[in-house]
Design goal:
The complex is a heterodimer of chains A (520) and B (236). Chain A has 520 residues and is an all-alpha fold. Chain A has helices spanning 20-40, 45-64, 77-102, 112-115, 122-132, 137-153, 159-189, 193-213, 217-222, 226-233, 239-258, 260-267, 272-279, 291-304, 307-326, 336-346, 360-366, 371-397, 406-433, 450-476, 480-506, 508-518. In chain A, helix 1 crosses helix 5. Chain A starts with 19 loop residues before the first helix and ends with a helix. With 236 residues, chain B is of the alpha/beta class. In chain B, helix 5 runs parallel beside helix 6 (168-183). Chain B starts with 6 loop residues before the first strand and ends with a helix. The chains are: A mainly alpha (520), B alpha/beta (236). Chains A and B meet through helix 13, helix 14, helix 17 and helix 22 of A and helix 2, strand 6 and helix 3 of B.
Chain lengths: 520, 236
């Protein structure tokens, strides 16, 4: 009995290969499908609708309202801002690139594990990350600041033309950020990828340092191409303006299309950082002397062996420090930094702190130890994580600051203590109230869904920025005792809230819900 | 049976919001015996195991383990039990050895290292004891969960789906762990969908349906084709 197919017979029907236009169209449609899927999974839809409306109002408001402020478009402060606009545009591009590169290509519309059974192309994955990029408080603040500054700096008759180009520039920066992030990710996953990317980062840092030390920063900023874009943007209704707007638009569209190429390349390569982290040998260490000690050690390992947390904390700690260093920030202004860093650090895992155990939460919950000890260990590790990041930022930023006087030092110490307690308290409160099952393996993973992350980041940023500004004022008062006196009630209030959360954690029903959710 | 049951569950109810995961289960398990919990998905097996492990508190009913009330003496019950959860059960960025160290420290164990190494070898995990568990295959994770449950020779061994995705060597090692526990007088509760393996490992089988117990039979009655038919009839 013949079993082989003859040459005239056809075997299984080959799946028809689609052309790249059809594949791109399909990828775009898939983004829509996945976006709808994620939208339906939003728990508090009413709140999401309110937040979307708030976002729209703030965006339109920041693009229009400053134009009607006293002095807008005039020769004084407005002109000073006008001169800084090209640098601000370049800064927006740099921050978009840094943020996307640090998160390994941006956020996932659907997590890698959840996506694995479905035919989702790398183009869809990349477009999803592009779509989610604005769901980030840092992105929003930058965009609002740029629009607001442009509205205030330019004369009212040029408002529409300027803002059209500014909006296109924001889109361009976001798209270019994604292209570069995916390119870096593709390189990082390739041969010698980690060494190449580290060399690139060091070279970039060294170049920036050399430019700053040689006093050429202003010369460089005077020559950035954004100067040309901004000059044309404020040239009024003209062919130059139209050409510039079209050019930025074309650049943004080209970046959107081009980004698919490195995304496909990256998808064919193994994520090296994650693979290395999961296969590295960790030699046994001696047993700590206390129960709290071993719990802290376990939690610490969970934090520092996670790719998104390591990368995230590095960017968070060093990034603002470098901005402070190159921007020659004074000690009095440095009080803003710990709040920013602590807020960002909490967004790496703190806002869903119990997800650190993953599915091991069930086993850990069966271990015979007091729930409060578990809570104390988690709170300590979170505080330590935030504190270390803040201290690195301050150390880097202080390289040019000289020796602070007593009231500046007291204000800075008080700020670090207050914002760390505030952020740890808020993060653990939210972790208990809204746990999510999240696997923090991927460099692109976040501890909560994108919409929730925006809410958390907005609340943290508001609270800590206010605190930082308050202590910045204290740093100007020549009495070191003022900062410590002001810090006491703030610390007491935050500590009381933390203790209340600790008491809620003791409730077995609450704990069971958290553990069952994060282990799901 | 003259001895009092080590695990005694009366009218157990567990509710998660509107969902009643367990609706009045009664269960007794004795020292030196292995009892299988059988039933379809959502029958309440894993939730019952979580209650016995002290992870989920009962909504209603009484649960005693080793004579201790699980509501009042949760910590003492956790000391008595060894639990292999149904999903994962491993901290993703800790190594097997770090899991064992944590368990030993919290249970105030001394000289545990030799037994831990022996168990890791028996489950063929000795080579990976210093690698984080996040990179483990499903079967490796299951095997390590059994090791963690058994390491401290618990009085009550709770194994929830220990055979899921495990190779024959792992299954044999798990059988050995169950046999050893029975020999030293421990109580074993084994939840599984694999009826044949449950029959081999256990003396008694409880069949759960819709959150309630529908049968308590000698495990041998569930063996073979006749047993399969009887089991199938209990599930419908």
């Amino acid at each position: 009995m013949p079993t082989a197919l003859s040459s005239t017979e056809r075997g299984t029907t080959a799946y028809p290969r689609t052309g790249w236009i059809a594949a791109a169209r399909r990828a775009v449609v898939d983004v829509g499908i996945l976006f709808q899927f994620r939208k339906h999974a939003v728990r508090r839809r009413h709140l999401a609708r309110v937040l979307s409306l708030v976002f729209l109002v703030i965006t339109v408001g920041s693009a229009v309202v400053p134009a009607f402020a006293p002095g807008a478009g005039g020769p004084g402060k407005a002109f000073s801002i006008l001169i800084l606009m090209p640098s601000a545009m370049a800064g927006l591009l740099a921050l978009n690139v840094a943020s996307a590169v640090a998160s390994g290509g941006g956020r996932e519309l659907i997590s890698r594990d959840h996506a694995s059974p479905y035919p989702i192309s790398p183009t869809t994955d990349y477009l999803g990350a592009l779509l989610l990029a604005p769901l980030n408080i840092a992105w929003m603040l930058q965009a609002w600041t740029l629009l607001g500054s442009a509205a205030y700096a330019t004369p009212g008759r040029l408002l529409v033309q300027t803002q059209v180009v500014m909006v296109l520039w924001i889109v361009f920066c976001t798209a270019v950020g994604q292209v570069l992030a995916w390119t870096v990710e593709a390189i990082r996953r390739g041969p010698f990828g980690i060494a190449i990317t580290r060399t690139l980062v060091v070279a970039l840092g060294a170049t920036a340092g050399a430019i700053q030390i040689s006093g050429n920063t202003t010369n460089l900023l005077d020559r950035v191409p954004t100067l040309w874009v901004f000059t044309n943007a404020i040239s009024g209704w003209s062919w130059t303006w139209a050409g510039t707007a079209l050019l930025v638009l074309a650049g943004a569209l080209a970046a959107v299309v081009l980004g698919a190429l490195p995304a496909h390349l990256a998808a064919t390569r193994m994520p090296r950082d994650e693979a290395r982290m999961e296969t590295d040998q960790h030699e046994p260490r001696p047993m700590p002397s206390s129960v709290l000690g071993i719990l802290i050690r376990t939690d610490r390992a969970s934090v520092w062996r996670s790719v998104p947390m390591r990368r995230g904390v590095l960017v968070l700690a060093v990034g603002p420090g470098l901005v402070a260093l190159f921007g020659d920030l004074q000690w009095q202004q440095m009080t803003i930094l710990p709040g920013l860093v602590a807020s960002g650090g909490a967004l790496l895992f703190g806002v869903n702190a119990w997800c650190l155990d993953g599915r091991g939460a069930l086993w850990r919950e069966n271990l015979p130890t007091m729930p409060t000890t578990l809570f104390d260990a988690r709170a300590w590790v979170l505080a330590e994580f935030l504190g270390v990041a803040s201290l690195i930022t301050i150390l880097v930023g202080a390289l040019r600051g000289g020796v602070p006087n007593s009231h500046e030092l007291a204000a800075l110490v008080a700020t670090v203590l207050v914002v760390t307690t505030q952020v740890v308290g808020a993060a653990l409160r939210w972790s208990l109230k809204h746990p999510y099952p999240v696997d923090l393996r991927s460099a692109r993973a976040t501890p909560a869904p994108p919409a929730a992350m925006v809410g958390y980041s907005a609340r943290l940023a508001t609270c800590t920025t206010f605190t930082g500004l308050f202590f910045s004022f204290c740093a100007r008062v020549p009495d070191w005792r003022l900062s410590l006196i002001v810090a006491m009630p703030c610390l007491l209030w935050s500590a009381t809230r933390l203790v209340r959360t600790r008491q809620r954690w003791e409730d077995p029903v609450t704990r069971a819900l958290v553990v069952s959710t994060v282990a799901a | 049976m003259t001895q009092p049951p080590v695990v005694d569950v009366r009218g157990l109810h567990v509710r998660f919001g509107e969902v009643e995961a367990v609706a009045g289960i009664d269960l007794e398990a004795y020292a030196g015996q292995a009892t299988a919990l059988l039933g379809r998905n959502g029958a309440g097996k894993s939730t019952t195991m979580r209650v016995l492990a002290g992870v989920v508190p009962p909504t209603a009913g009484t649960v005693t383990v080793g004579g201790l009330d699980i509501r009042r003496d949760t910590l003492a019950v956790k000391q008595l039990t060894g639990y292999c959860p149904d999903v994962g059960g491993l901290v993703p960025r800790a190594t097997p050895w770090e899991h064992l160290q944590l368990s030993a420290k919290l249970r105030r164990m001394n000289g545990w290292e030799e037994r831990a190494r022996d168990l890791l070898e028996r489950f063929e995990l000795g080579d990976v004891m210093n690698r984080v568990t996040g990179g483990f295959s499903h079967g490796m994770g299951r095997r390590l969960s059994v090791v963690l449950a058994a390491m401290h020779d618990p009085q009550v061994l709770l194994l929830d789906e220990p055979f899921d995705g495990v190779d024959p060597i792992g299954v044999e090692a798990t059988f050995e762990v169950i046999a050893d526990a029975r020999a030293r007088g421990a109580t074993i509760l084994l939840s599984t969908h694999l009826r044949d393996l449950a029959v081999q490992a256990c003396g008694t089988a409880l069949v759960l349906r819709g959150g309630s117990r529908v049968a308590s039979v000698d495990a041998q009655e569930m063996s073979g084709e006749e047993g399969a038919r009887a089991y199938r009839a209990l599930l419908d």
